[in-house]
């Protein structure tokens, strides 16, 4: 039954939404791309693998707001059904999605494990086209979700995953339909809103190395009441993954993994480069020459003296081929690279409910509530490496007598330089983020008749909050550390004390860093207080949104359809850091837990890492949009075609006005099963809260000073409230072959895309700034200071709208299904393949003196030239009870860096933009996954999955600072993983 919808009802349903026009959620659920019994693991395209729609079929896909009979949208969209996700058998849907070729550069629990201060550790956020998580819009049932970080990106781990019945991945600009952030595309999670019954999933697993043990428990219940007018759905989920802990110091792989070999990028001297040798060479079994596990003298006549058991001095074994900061072989006990966790300890807890009431057969009001908490824990590195930058005086009370005597005679200034890994520290640094989401939505959707036409609507109001608390343990305060290691004997008592009287008065306790000597725990508690770095962030999002769509008129080639709506949104955040990091002179609710200390800097940045600062900010945006679908061709001779156009106007309280538009077309050609599609769009991304208002944060980095030396610096990041929106031009063209008469179960699509983004909000990394400064760029030099005393060197990083991005590539998708009964065999075989060829991924810093950087195929980044996922499944074996599936994940070979010049001899002089390297090749990788499920009964099934079946070791990606040397954004870093589970559905 269809009746006019009273305006009063809309207002009631969305608590005042009629005050603004707003962007819609879905008008109704999309039709499945294939019959449920013939569902492929992933369709070649949500709108391409379907059979030809009948005159009464209404197709809704996430790339468009149009819901109309026979509509085929021009924007490529890949869909994963719940059956696809079940076959992937991952403890987190996020881990299934990032295997898709179009998703490149996503963050998860295996990325950023080296980071203490970034704030994004453990954040499961998606990135399309390698354009970054900030340029990918992630939705839940077509609705925005409060960000789990001040950047505004959502955390997929906070979604109610058991109720997800499909995920639409829109691989194209969608800002005209959905608003800001959709430059790379949209990932839309669609839940089962009318789930009835009870279902559960219980699984567990571990790796071949008996680590990263994981367990998942999920349950959902739904039931209709009052003649099914009232529907209630509730779900709860818990997942725990123990992670892969650090093995500590030295060349030792985590959990018995033998592939770790201390990779490093060795830098030659200026003299070697002038003689025609390359600047960089990738080496294995690397030993850093500026520190040892328990201390190493790095200058003067005692250079090469290290300290062992009980502080006994011994000659350090440097190894061979010593160039710049690295040797090959030698004493690698103090290496810190292996000390980075391969995967975080990770827990997610989610509770969700949806309650709906059918006003009549066509109209529904509903409320949803979601509570989710995601916690992580990991160690970025052991100890706290000091790269030869400690000034030790000859009268230090802990120096062995022989060393002290040599210091007095050999160092006229009475000071020598020492580097150390601080292997005597009793515990590794531990970073512990916790994100808690609280989200509620009230809304209405349904149908009504107007002027003799059928219309549908969707309106909602959302309030979401996210609280992120990060605690860092076992980390030192730099000033206290420096006071504590500067120890002397008190002439009056003969006791060893801190040299500084002011530090002694503030509680300084001396520590011995020379040799394998148990640390004085009073000294440890002084330099690493239990109240370590802390950050507390509160983010909120309020949205009022509405959408209406229907048929304007019947055109000569089909119905002319219109969707229109608008949105009002407010984003707000506030963040407090601890006083030692944020500044003792700042107002903080946590000051009582951090006693005043006159030896600490009042402006903050006292910690070795994790110096979080205070900040706050907010913005509002008003948007209105309209989208039209106009069929203009319907001919038995020439086929059918339609034009899809959309326009969105936005006004931000901070960044001003922005506009997005889309112009697309599809042509169902007269050739059997062949359809062409093309779309051009202008897409936008407004600056987020962090980019606009972030207070200064400081992280420790090591940079090369272009003289073959590694310098420890502070990277100081700060927001810029003058930022404007990014603007992108997104063009794509593709062809779709959908179930032609000569291959009824075959679907194939190929799409070319070209995305140009200007006014990109970006900043240079510290090494780029240092290189540019040494290259003579005075503008950049004003933000660089690396020639001061230890602890004072810094590089200031602030974002501006000066960069640009250009990404081009081709996507391929294929699905084929065959009933094996034709060959006298049981069951059905399904083949599915997705591949992405990245032609270009060019980033132009936009600063005088810089050159564009090609990222396609650079294996230190996130955009390999080729990424593919191929799956084969055989279902219906053993009387329909058994199903087996095999998949291959392929990463094509590439280079270390496209800007590097490969040469072995007679090399040109390297430049900051184009360094030289001995071998620039980086191999690709293929990973095999195997799984299966067995249906015990209609209600109960069991399944298993083995990921990385061959236990393929990751390709090592060496760095200049002897970090772990992995790129988990490209390569599998965990190894063979086993999982088993049981699903129940009653």
Write up what this structure looks like.
- This protein has 14 helices and 49 strands.
- The strands form eleven sheets. It has a 22-stranded antiparallel β-barrel.
- The protein folds into two domains: 7-214 and 231-245 and 343-379 and 432-471 and 537-577 and 614-687 and 723-763 and 799-985, TonB-dependent receptor, beta-barrel domain (Maltoporin, Chain A); 263-331 and 386-420 and 478-527, no CATH class.
- By secondary structure, the protein is mainly β.
Structural key phrases:
cell outer membrane, Maltoporin, Chain A, 14 helices, tonb box, 2 domains, globular, disordered N terminus, Plug_dom, 986 residues, transmembrane beta strand, transport, mainly beta
Helix fraction, binned, reads under 10%
Instruction: Determine the CATH topology of the largest domain.
Output: Maltoporin, Chain A
Basic shape: globular
Number of domains: 2
Mean pLDDT, nearest integer?
A: 89
Number of helices: 14
Radius of gyration over C-alpha positions, nearest whole angstrom: 30 Å
Strand fraction equals 35-45%
Counted beta strands: 49
Q: What is the first-to-last residue Cα distance?
A: 31 Å
* Largest sheet composition: 22 strands, antiparallel, barrel
**Name given to the CATH homologous superfamily of the largest domain:** TonB-dependent receptor, beta-barrel domain
**CATH C-level of the largest domain:** Mainly Beta
Structural class: mainly beta
CATH architecture of the largest domain, by name, is Beta Barrel
Organism: Duganella rivi
Biased composition (Low complexity): 37-46
Signal peptide: 1-27
GO cellular component, one term: cell outer membrane
């Amino acid at each position: 039954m269809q009746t006019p919808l009273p305006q009063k009802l809309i207002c009631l349903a969305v608590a005042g939404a009629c005050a603004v026009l707003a962007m819609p959620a879905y008008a109704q659920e999309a039709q499945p791309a294939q019959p449920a019994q013939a569902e492929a693991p992933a369709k070649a395209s949500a709108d391409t693998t379907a059979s030809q729609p009948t005159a009464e079929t209404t197709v809704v896909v996430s790339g468009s707001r149009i819901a109309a009979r026979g509509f085929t949208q021009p924007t490529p969209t890949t869909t994963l059904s719940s059956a696809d996700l079940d076959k992937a058998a991952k403890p987190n849907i996020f881990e299934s999605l990032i295997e898709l070729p179009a998703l490149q550069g996503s963050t998860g629990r295996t990325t950023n494990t080296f980071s203490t201060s970034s704030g994004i550790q453990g954040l499961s956020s998606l990135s399309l086209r390698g354009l970054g998580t900030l340029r990918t819009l992630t939705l839940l049932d077509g609705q925005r979700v409060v960000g789990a970080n001040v950047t505004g990106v959502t955390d997929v781990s906070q979604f109610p995953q058991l109720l997800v019945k499909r995920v639409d991945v829109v691989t194209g600009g969608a800002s005209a339909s959905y608003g800001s952030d959709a430059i790379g595309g949209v990932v839309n999670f669609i839940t089962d809103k009318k789930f009835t019954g009870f279902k559960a999933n219980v699984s567990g697993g571990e790796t071949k190395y008996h680590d990263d043990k994981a367990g998942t428990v999920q349950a959902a219940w739904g039931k209709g009441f009052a003649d099914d007018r009232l529907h209630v759905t509730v779900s709860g989920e818990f997942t725990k993954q123990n992670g892969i802990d650090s093995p500590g110091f030295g060349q030792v792989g985590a959990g018995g993994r033998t592939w770790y070999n201390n990779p490093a990028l060795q830098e030659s001297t200026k003299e070697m480069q002038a003689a025609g040798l390359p600047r960089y060479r990738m080496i294995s079994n690397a030993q850093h020459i500026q520190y040892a596990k328990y201390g190493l003298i790095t200058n003067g006549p005692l250079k090469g003296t290290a300290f062992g058991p009980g502080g006994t001095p011994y000659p350090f074994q440097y190894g061979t081929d010593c160039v710049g900061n690295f040797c090959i072989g030698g004493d690698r006990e103090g290496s810190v690279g292996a000390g980075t966790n391969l995967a975080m300890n990770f827990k997610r807890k989610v509770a969700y409910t949806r309650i709906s009431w059918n006003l009549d057969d066509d109209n529904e009001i509903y409320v949803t509530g979601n509570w989710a908490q995601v916690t992580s824990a990991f160690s970025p590195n052991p100890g706290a490496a000091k790269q030869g930058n400690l000034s030790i005086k000859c009268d230090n009370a802990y120096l062995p007598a022989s060393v002290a005597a040599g210091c007095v005679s050999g160092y006229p200034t009475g000071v020598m330089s020492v580097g150390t890994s601080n292997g005597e520290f009793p515990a590794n640094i531990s970073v512990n983020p916790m994100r808690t989401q609280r989200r509620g939505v009230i809304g209405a959707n349904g149908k009504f008749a107007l002027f003799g036409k059928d219309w549908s609507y969707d309106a909602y109001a959302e309030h979401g909050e996210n609280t992120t608390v990060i605690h860092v343990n076992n980390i030192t305060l730099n000033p206290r550390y420096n006071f504590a290691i500067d120890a002397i004997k008190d002439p009056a008592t003969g006791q060893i004390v801190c040299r500084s009287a002011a530090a002694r008065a503030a509680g300084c306790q001396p520590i011995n860093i020379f040799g394998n000597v148990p640390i004085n725990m009073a000294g440890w508690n002084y330099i690493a207080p239990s109240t370590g770095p802390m950050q507390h962030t509160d983010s909120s999002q309020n949205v009022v949104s509405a959408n209406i769509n229907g048929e304007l008129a019947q055109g000569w080639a089909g119905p002319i359809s219109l969707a229109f709506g608008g949105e009002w949104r407010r984003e707000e955040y506030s963040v407090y850091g601890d006083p030692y990091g944020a500044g003792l002179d700042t107002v903080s609710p946590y000051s009582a837990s951090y006693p005043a200390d006159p030896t600490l800097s009042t402006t903050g940045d006292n910690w070795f890492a994790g110096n979080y600062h205070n900040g706050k900010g907010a913005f509002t945006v008003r948007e209105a949009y309209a989208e039209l679908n106009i069929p203009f061709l319907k001919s038995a001779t020439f086929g059918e075609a339609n034009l899809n156009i959309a326009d969105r106007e936005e006004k931000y309280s901070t960044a001003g006005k922005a506009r997005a538009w889309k112009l697309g077309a599809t042509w169902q050609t007269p050739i059997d099963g062949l359809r062409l599609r093309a779309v051009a769009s202008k897409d936008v991304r407004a600056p987020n809260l962090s980019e606009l208002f972030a207070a200064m944060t400081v992280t420790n980095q090591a940079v090369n000073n272009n003289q073959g030396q590694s310098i420890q610096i502070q990277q100081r990041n700060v927001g810029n409230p003058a930022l404007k929106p990014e603007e992108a031009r997104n063009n794509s063209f593709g062809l779709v072959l959908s179930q032609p008469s000569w291959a009824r179960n075959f679907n194939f699509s190929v799409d070319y895309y070209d995305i140009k983004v200007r006014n990109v909000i970006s900043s240079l990394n510290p090494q780029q700034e240092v290189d540019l400064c040494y290259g003579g760029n005075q503008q950049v030099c004003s933000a660089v200071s690396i020639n001061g005393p230890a602890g004072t060197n810094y590089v200031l990083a602030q974002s501006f709208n000066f960069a640009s991005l250009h990404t081009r590539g081709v996507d391929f998708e294929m699905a084929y299904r065959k009933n094996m009964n034709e060959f006298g065999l049981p069951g059905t075989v399904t083949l599915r393949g997705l591949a992405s060829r990245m032609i270009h991924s060019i980033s132009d810093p936009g600063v005088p003196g810089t050159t564009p950087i090609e990222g396609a195929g650079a294996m230190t980044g996130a955009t390999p030239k080729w990424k593919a996922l191929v799956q084969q499944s055989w279902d219906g074996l053993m009387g329909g009870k058994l199903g087996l599936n095999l998949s291959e994940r392929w990463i094509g070979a590439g280079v270390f860096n496209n800007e590097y010049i490969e040469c072995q001899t007679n090399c040109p002089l390297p430049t900051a933009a184009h360094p030289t390297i001995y071998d620039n090749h980086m191999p690709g990788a293929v990973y095999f996954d195997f799984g299966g499920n067995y249906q015990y009964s209609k209600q109960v099934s069991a399944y298993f999955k083995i990921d990385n079946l061959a236990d393929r070791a990751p390709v090592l990606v060496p760095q200049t600072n002897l970090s772990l040397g992995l790129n988990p954004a490209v390569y599998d870093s965990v190894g063979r993983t086993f999982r088993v589970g049981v699903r129940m559905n009653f």
